[in-house]
Amino acid sequence: MRPDRAATARADDERAYYARSRHIYAAWFATIYDAITWPARWLRSRVARLAGIQAGMRAIDVATGTGAQARAFADAGARVLAIDLSLRMLAIAVRKRHHPDIDFVEADATALPAPDASFDVSCVSFALHEMPPGVRARVVAEMARVTRPGGTVVVVDYALPRNRVWRWVVYHVVKTYEPAPYAGFVHADLVALLARSGISLRADHRALLGAARVAIGIREA
């Protein structure tokens, strides 16, 4: 594909992503989001532990959805900024359980409303797989920007199990309901994506029978 056509295709993919996100998460899907993500519910407190959340820390939860991960961070003692594109999702998050240590803000994850190095922990949970590669890279770069040097960057998302048969099953089942970027995401090099933004992988934990991962990175100086 010629460079100009490739650039146009990337721009079209990104426009489609934002249009899809705003349409889906502003409509009926927001009301059933918690039911769909119910299998990951038990993972939230584990992520807070793996991220090393302690009382007095500042954390940002990117693409927070209905705020489950943000609440787990706040319950562990952090002050949390939770951002999402969807006002409908944020409204549900606030209505579910108000927490005085969480600020819910409508924002684009490619332009986080925070100064450089202002958080001890940044996290994105089950969102990168929905994004085209260009958007995904900008989101990770923004997370790195707002995390202090030596701070923790957490990515929770889909993975492929190591067992070949279970790997095939998980991939083809998830692909039936997730948008097209999922296939590219689970086959992409997450370690390299993080490294390009100055984040080194410290640990990579598997969850949900290998169908998910919790990648713990450190923001380099």
Q: What can you tell me about this protein's structure?
A:
There is one protein chain. This protein has helices at 3-25, 29-36, 43-50, 68-75, 87-96, 133-146, 164-175, 181-187, 190-195, and strands spanning 58-62, 79-84, 102-106, 119-125, 147-158, 199-207, 212-219. With 221 residues, the chain is an alpha/beta fold. The chain has a single domain, classed as Rossmann fold, CATH 3.40.50.150. The protein has a seven-stranded mixed β-sheet with strand order 3-2-1-4-5-7-6, with helices on both faces. Strand 1 (58-62), helix 4 (68-75) and strand 2 form a beta-alpha-beta unit. Helix 3 (43-50) packs across helix 4 (68-75). The chain starts with a helix and ends with a strand.
Distance between the termini: 38 Å
How many strands, which pairing sense, and closed or not: the largest β-sheet?
7 strands, mixed
Give me the count of strands. 7
The whole-angstrom Rg is 17 Å
Write down the CATH class: Alpha Beta
Oligomeric grouping of the chains: single chain
Helix run count? 9
CATH homology superfamily name:
Vaccinia Virus protein VP39
Measured as a percent range, the helix fraction is 40-55%
CATH architecture label name: 3-Layer(aba) Sandwich
CATH topology: Rossmann fold
Strand order of the largest sheet: 3-2-1-4-5-7-6
Query: What is the residue-mean pLDDT, rounded to a whole number?
Result: 88
